[in-house]
Amino acid sequence: MRVTDLVVPKFNNNDESYILVEWLFDDGEQVGSGDAVAVIETSKATQDLIVEGEGVLHRLKPEKAECGPGDVIGRLFASEPDRQSYLAGEEQAGKQEAASNTAAEPTMTESARAFAAEHGISADRLRALGKSLIRRSDVERLIEGELPANKSRLLPISRRQQAIGAVVSESHRTIPAAFTLMRVDVGRALSTAATLAERVGAPVGLPELLIKAVAGLHEEFPLFFARAVDQAHVEPAAAAHVGVTVDVGTGLFIPVVRDAGQRSIPEIVDILMDFRIKGLRNTLTEQDFADAVIVVSLNNDDAVVFARPIVFPGHTCMVSLGGVLTEPTLDGAGNLVARQVVHMGLAYDHRIVNGRDAVTFLQRLRARLEAPEHLERGDAG
């Protein structure tokens, strides 16, 4: 009997679990090679599960169920009689399991094991569930049953926020991050952005200039774009793929400007506009989030002077950009004038980057933003 497992792929490096949002075929329906058979939701986007074979579908997980990379959520059979034969065998196996009385240790999914450890659930309490296979949802129900009697007053945390929380917790647990902040005079950068906006007929601001500036430091500061392999080695990035935070009111996303060092500023403007439109329409795909080697964190409110970002697992640095402030200063003749400044920060993995190099990196960025003509021409600066 020919059977093809439908296995959930690893869509990204941040999530340990996903949600099976929707099946696109019913049990017993014929599925063709290349068909999208289900919709999977990660913390970032929804993704179609494409089948490589063909056959009659049998679904193993219901819609809205949790699933993880490597999980088998369904099977494809060569024919409907083969599917029925499989179901008959499963029914018999279920009866035998129910009749058996074994003290064997239950099998746990990796997601369930990690979740139980995180919440201090003992092995005895897990065995008491009486299940041969324990999934994360079983552990969640166990914990829910121990909530206070007034649990109706508790507020739920969305799955998306739980996924974000897991990434933040992993960052704090595994990365000894440091943070350095620097003030930058952005008067000339804002003037350059306004000139470019008139030329390209689209809004241009500091984010586009900063992305270009960051990417231009890839060759000079390879450690800042590297990925830690172990305590003694890092893997350098082949290109400056710069992730950038995008928040259009539907959630915070970090799509990637690929090969940002080879892009002109008008090209970066178009890419960011496309990301914002996709964010509004909820059409960002996993490919939009792939391969970031450094991230630029933006703030949409000028009242936010600065924010200290995290360093994502698998990255070494994140650059942050605060709101524009107007402050008094003295010009060369001693006259009181106004200038526009921002606070630009760098969070970095202190195992890989030392403080002196972090300051030098920020100084290079500041020089590029304070002499933005180099960025506009694509010079090294």
From TrEMBL:
The keyword rRNA processing appears for this protein: no
EC number: 2.3.1.-
Cross-referenced InterPro entries: 2-oxoA_DH_lipoyl-BS, 2-oxoacid_DH_actylTfrase, 2-oxoacid_DH_E2_comp, Biotin_lipoyl, CAT-like_dom_sf, Single_hybrid_motif
Protein name, as recorded: Dihydrolipoamide acetyltransferase component of pyruvate dehydrogenase complex
CC cofactor: (R)-lipoate
GO molecular function: acetyltransferase activity; lipoic acid binding
Annotated Gene3D superfamilies: 2.40.50.100, Chloramphenicol acetyltransferase-like domain
GO cellular component labels: cytoplasm
